[in-house]
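Thread amino acids onto this structure.
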């Protein structure tokens, strides 16, 4: 049986490892970055396809690789990827399964400012900094950086991004100086985040509600312990997921495959 795993997150590598425990499954992983492809390969994927795929391209992969099941384990904010995956599964008649990270419990605090889009995050941050010289730490992904730099002087913005050429280029294109780019890979502890915020004299952080396994809690709790404002972008709702099979923990997903394909 051929299973296509739309990967690129730490969750997806765990899913691949679980599925590879059964010799019945041939895993084809899709990722948007070379690093993601390496992670999928090390997790046990039999084959991988690199690059962001549009709906028609997903259809082609499904037909060419004779995919039976599509497991969508993309990031909670990668809504276009999820929409394309759902549409492709419906058009090709294969089974679609969504692995969705559990939402984090957002602490109650006057320092947390909840927003629902990157544009709203930029406006809220602008309100918080006003005419001061407060420094901002952007932890919401390099692709959303442009929304902030369009409204706020980039010399006051620091961004932690993946250490890839594409990420660095996007930072520079958004107007950040090299000294303001923190290129690091990984999910970091609360204490590490506190040290980083102190080192750069940060007053405000911008981050996403990426789920319990996405590192959001350690970022937010670090900021709160330092008395910093947090602009928190909540994950978008995907209406297309209604009536689709969704799993929010790995054990349930594993049991599903064991029950259906013992």
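Threaded sequence (262 positions):
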């Amino acid at each position: 049986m051929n299973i296509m795993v739309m990967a690129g997150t730490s969750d997806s590598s765990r899913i691949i490892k679980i599925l590879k425990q059964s010799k019945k499954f041939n895993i084809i992983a899709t990722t948007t970055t070379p690093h993601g492809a390496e992670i999928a390969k090390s997790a046990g994927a039999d084959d991988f396809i690199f690059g962001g795929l549009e709906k028609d391209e997903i259809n082609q992969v499904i037909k060419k690789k004779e995919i039976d099941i599509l497991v969508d384990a993309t990031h909670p904010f990668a809504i276009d990827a999820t929409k394309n995956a759902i549409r492709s599964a419906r058009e090709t008649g294969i089974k679609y399964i969504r692995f969705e990270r559990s939402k984090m419990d957002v602490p109650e605090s006057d320092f947390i400012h909840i927003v629902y889009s990157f544009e709203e995050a930029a406006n809220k941050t602008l309100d918080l900094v006003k005419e001061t010289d407060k420094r901002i730490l952007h932890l919401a992904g390099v692709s959303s950086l442009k929304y902030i730099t369009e409204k706020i002087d980039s010399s006051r913005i620091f961004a932690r991004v993946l250490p890839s050429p594409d990420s660095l280029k996007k930072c520079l294109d958004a107007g950040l100086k090299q000294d303001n780019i923190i290129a690091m890979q990984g999910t970091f502890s609360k204490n590490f985040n506190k040290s980083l915020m102190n080192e750069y004299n940060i007053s405000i952080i911008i981050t996403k509600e990426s789920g319990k396994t996405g590192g959001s809690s350690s970022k937010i709790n670090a900021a709160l312990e330092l008395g910093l404002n947090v602009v928190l972008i909540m994950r978008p709702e995907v209406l297309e997921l209604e009536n689709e099979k969704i799993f929010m923990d790995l054990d349930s997903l594993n049991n599903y495959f064991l029950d259906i394909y013992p």
